[in-house]
Each structure stands twice: as structure tokens, then as C-alpha cells.
Amino acid sequence: METEELGQKSKRLKSSNEQLELVVHGADDAALVKSREEEIDEIGVGSEETSAEIARIYEQIQSFTNMVCDLLESGKSMLKDLSNEFEERMISIHKEHIQKWEEEIQTIRLVDASNAQESAVLQNAKAMLQNVCGES
Question: What's the domain of life for this entry (predicted)?
């Protein structure tokens, strides 16, 4: 019965390890791991101690696999959060610059309008002076 349980645990661990290997290393590395596991299975299990040791190693593999999966998920989550923050900040910077430039354009237009008014006043003064000088 213990051997049967070990076999089931071993199959579950192999399946999850194969999935992780496909994600982490790609199909070629997963095939290599699978072939090594098949070689070990062909050799067979000897004593109870050997079975227990193999089961312990499979549990360590499963534990490590779970830890790596958790780290991958938390890393993805952190990168997604960081990406969202980066995007929001870039949009904010863009808006700030656009607003600054729009204010600068408005200032230039006000200065231009003021200059046009001053130019008109100067033209009127010049015309008056010419009229006064021409009449004398």
C-alpha cells in the first residue's frame, strides 16, 4: 500500500514538475528531465528505506516547485503593478508637460496681442506727429 501511495505521489510530482519545466526551461529540458525520471523508474525501487528516501526527495522537489511557482506568480504580480505605476507616471508627466506648453502658448499669444496694441498706439502717435510736423 505504501508503495502504491508513493507511486501516486511520484506521478503527481512528475506531472507538476513537467509543467514547471515547460514553463521555466522549455520543452527540451522537460524531455530530458522526463527521460531521467523514466530511467530511475525502470531501475525499480529496492528497500523500504530507498522508497522513503525517494519519496522524501520527490516531496522536496514538489516543495521547491511550489516555491518557484509562487515566486513566479508574485514576480509577475509585482512587475504588473510596477508597469501600471510606470504607465500612470508617464501619463502624468506627459500631461504636466502639455499643460506647461499650453500655458507658454497662452503667454506668447498674450504678449503678441499686447505688442499688437502697442504697435497700433505707436503707429497712431507716429501718424499724429507726421500730421503735426506736416501742418507746421
Answer: Eukaryota
Report CA Rg, the chain.
Answer: 40
CA separation for the pair 89, 103 (Å, rounded): 21
Cα–Cα dist 61/14, whole Å? 9
Q: What is the residue extent of each domain of the chain?
A: 2-135
pTM greater than 0.85: no
As a whole number of angstroms, the distance between CA 128 and CA 80 comes to 72
The cell 508627466 sits on which residue? 93
User: What torsion do the CA atoms of 42, 48, 50, 56 make, to the nearest 10 degrees?
Assistant: 110
- Asked if 65 and 17 count as a contact pair (C-beta separation under 8 A), the reply is yes
